[in-house]
Design a protein that fits this description.
The protein has four domains: 125 residues, 3-Layer(aba) Sandwich (Rossmann fold), CATH 3.40.50.2300; 172 residues, Alpha-Beta Plaits (2-Layer Sandwich), CATH 3.30.70; 100 residues; 87 residues, Homeodomain-like (Arc Repressor Mutant, subunit A), CATH 1.10.10.60. The strands form two sheets. Strands 2-1-3-4-5 form a five-stranded parallel β-sheet, sandwiched between helices. The chain contains 25 helices and ten strands. The protein is of the alpha/beta class and 515 residues long. It starts with a strand and ends with a helix. α3 packs parallel to α4. This is Response regulator.
């Protein structure tokens, strides 16, 4: 089997080309290129040596991987394409689905992911089942099209015997797939589907499958003669086996949502909705979950009335600037989510509100998170499907925010004390008060009083008197003013009080100090 490699990063091309396992797989690298146009021109010239597999990056200069694949598959529809994608290209990569791309592998990738994908294509490319898979995918897309009538859907199917069977819809999703994609961690939906095929070889049921955005859809066809209880048991058994096989051999975990029994394949849309709604509760249950729609309905019936969640406590935690308070706060939130039985949508909404509250609190301390940082955090929050993973991310986010707030508070305290010192130095001769300073700084009087005491060990009055005595010492040493004249000059109204305080702080009376 011949392979052609296209990537604008030479290191990536060299890595792929140099893999020693190609020979063991019976594969040969017949060419490589640094961009789509160079590859296209080279491939057209090859004529009789067109590769069986094209391994291509998506984003490249001159001509990207999407356009290269479109042109090549128009001329050589039997060619298989494997895309190498970066996390930021996920939506961009979706355009390739209509082209019939065989697999998407995220960068950075492990060699086993690429080799497994090529091996699967090699083993199945000449299998007559390959054409059957394509038909199945077309039928599934037709049946899930809400704009088509039941008659149109019935006419599109060429297997009328399937209308004589009931069905169960299974959505097999990679856990945290959006986050894996966002962070560039490797996963392969094609490899997952291969594991599902292995499992289904042990069961007598006909089935359809297709790749979904988050994993694989599996439709089991069940005879009407099989009772509902046995149907549910068989579907659960299939799910358990898929879960066991996948989680043992893949570098990522999966969870499975199972619909109720569908009376007809024409109800496939309902099956999809039920299976997907089951997976919303994976947020509470965790990775490697199997959730059946019937069980989920029971959970919903027992669920308490959801209450409004107040994030006032979060503001207090942030304002205190103590990271040790964050784990306990998040544990409380986790208990609320579990107790209220919140689904994925509500939990994500509450976590997004935490991000908003944190941003507003930081602004109150003079911190302004950049729009890029805020967007990245929000994207990360929305990418989680497992509550424990989401809570771990939120803990890291809140700890960073608290550290920034604590630093800002320390700087703010230093700046405020500087303002206090400057105020006293500037106006010590006047009849000044702490209330006057608080009004000048637009700060709460009580807060300012506590801050001064905490940072200096003295209250405002003591600081003022100490500074006046220092100024008095200078005047007594450098001028001919009498001690009572000095008292008035530095802001004291009572010379006797001045003399008493002067001796207390210096150990001498004003007269003794001047002498």
């Amino acid at each position: 089997m011949n392979i052609y490699v296209v990537d604008d990063e030479k290191a990536v091309r060299d890595y792929i080309v140099s893999l020693p396992e190609w020979e063991n797989l019976g594969c040969k690298i017949i060419g490589q290129a640094a961009d789509g146009l160079e590859a296209y021109e080279d491939l057209i010239e090859m004529k009789e040596r067109i590769p069986d597999i094209l391994i291509s990056d998506i984003r490249m200069p001159v001509m990207d991987g999407i356009e290269l694949s479109r042109r090549m598959l128009e001329k050589f529809p039997e060619m298989k394409v494997i895309f190498l994608t970066a996390y930021s290209e996920f939506n961009y990569a979706k355009q390739a689905v209509k082209l019939g791309v065989s697999d998407f592998i995220t960068k950075p990738f492990h060699e086993s992911e690429l080799l497994d994908s090529v091996k699967w294509i090699k083993e199945h490319r000449l299998d007559r089942q390959n054409a059957e898979l394509i038909r199945q995918e077309e039928w599934i897309q037709t049946l899930l099209n809400s704009e088509l009538s039941e008659q149109s859907k019935s006419e599109a199917l060429s297997q009328p015997e399937l209308f004589m069977k009931s069905a169960v819809f299974l959505s097999i999703e990679i856990d945290n797939v959006d986050f894996l994609d966002y962070t560039g961690k490797p996963f392969s939906k094609l490899t997952l589907r291969e594991k599902i095929f292995e499992v289904m070889s042990f069961y007598p049921f006909p089935y359809w499958s297709t790749l979904s955005q988050s994993g694989v859809y599996l439709i089991l066809f069940i005879p009407f003669s099989l009772p509902n209880e046995e149907t549910a048991h068989e579907a659960m058994d299939v799910a358990r086996r898929i879960l066991e096989t996948s989680n043992e051999s893949l570098g990522f975990s999966v969870s499975i949502g199972i619909s109720d029994r569908l009376n007809s394949i024409l109800e496939l849309g309902r099956g999809l909705e039920e299976a997907k709604s089951c997976l919303d509760y994976r947020m509470l249950i965790g990775r490697k979950s199997i959730i059946a729609y019937q069980a989920m309905k029971s959970l919903q019936e027992k669920k308490r009335v959801q209450t409004e969640i107040n994030h006032t406590e979060l503001v207090e935690v942030l304002r205190k600037g103590e990271s040790a308070l964050i784990p306990e706060y998040l544990k409380k939130m986790n208990r609320v989510f579990m107790r209220e039985g919140l689904n994925k949508k509500r939990i994500l909404e509450e976590c997004m509100e935490m991000v908003t509250v944190t941003g507003k609190t930081m602004i109150a301390f003079g911190l302004q998170p950049s729009p890029e940082e805020t967007l990245a955090v929000r994207k990360s929050v929305l990418s989680f499907t497992i509550l424990s993973d989401l809570m771990q991310f939120m803990e890291q986010f809140l700890e960073r925010s608290v550290a920034d707030i604590k630093s800002a508070k320390q700087k703010s305290s230093v700046n405020l004390i500087d303002h206090v010192t400057q105020f006293i130095e500037r106006r010590y001769m006047e009849d000044i008060t702490l209330q006057m300073l608080a009004e000048e700084l637009f700060i709460n009087y009580s807060y300012l009083s506590r801050l001064i005491k905490k940072e200096t060990g003295q209250n405002f009055r003591d600081l003022l008197w100490s500074y006046r005595i220092e100024m008095a010492k200078i005047k007594l040493s450098t001028t001919s003013l009498k001690h009572y004249e000095v008292a008035y000059a530095v802001g004291f109204k009572d010379p006797a009080h001045f003399s008493q305080l002067f001796k207390k702080l210096t150990g001498k009376s004003p007269g003794e100090y001047k002498a």
